[in-house]
Amino acid sequence: MISSTEVQNRLADFLAGNSSLDDFEDWFVKQSWDVHKFQDFDLQRLIFAIELRLSEHSSGHLPEDALREDLRRVLQRVPLKVGVLADAVSVQSGTSSSASFRPVPRIQPVDISPVKAFV
């Protein structure tokens, strides 16, 4: 499955001139084909925002310079997620009067973006 980071990196490469629009579109269409099945709703919003701009461009409603500017804004609004180590516990053994717990570390994503939706 495609990741938000991968989409951001590929989009940044296109915007920096390291790949062509055709190359980006070919990769993007293949990788985002089943986006409606993804459980990452921030990723869905990112993909839908890019799809909208690409569609507007391909139908002649958005010139390439405006497309690039819109995609820059989309990229700037991507929610930044970082991993935070969260302590969880699991019960090793126990009775109604006592229990023994051990920590189980896990990574929990935290959204630190001030913007929750793409405009």
Describe this structure in words.
- The chain is α+β, with helices and mostly antiparallel strands and 119 residues long.
- The chain has two domains: 4-76, no CATH class; 81-111, no CATH class.
- The chain is built from four helices and two strands; from the N terminus they run H-H-H-H-E-E.
- It has a two-stranded antiparallel ribbon with strand order 1-2.
- The longest helix has 18 residues, at 41-58.
- The protein is globular.
- The two termini are 25 Å apart.
- The relative contact order is 0.14.
Tally of separate domains: 2
Uncertain runs are 82-94
**Portion in helices:** 40-55%
The radius of gyration over CA amounts to: 20 Å
Distance between the termini: 25 Å
Count of extended strands: 2
Shape: globular
Strand content: 15-25%
Mean pLDDT figure: 78
Which sheet architecture does the biggest sheet show?
Answer: 2 strands, antiparallel
| Number of H- or I-type helical stretches | 4
Strand order of the largest sheet: 1-2
Provide key terms for this protein.
alpha+beta, single chain, two-stranded antiparallel sheet, 23% strand, 119 residues, globular, 45% helix, 4 helices
Brief summary:
45% of the residues lie in helices and 23% in strands. The protein is of the alpha+beta class and 119 residues long.
Secondary-structure topology with pairs:
Layout: H1 4-15, H2 21-31, H3 41-58, H4 64-76, E1 81-94, E2 99-111
Helix pairs in contact: 1-2, 1-4, 3-4
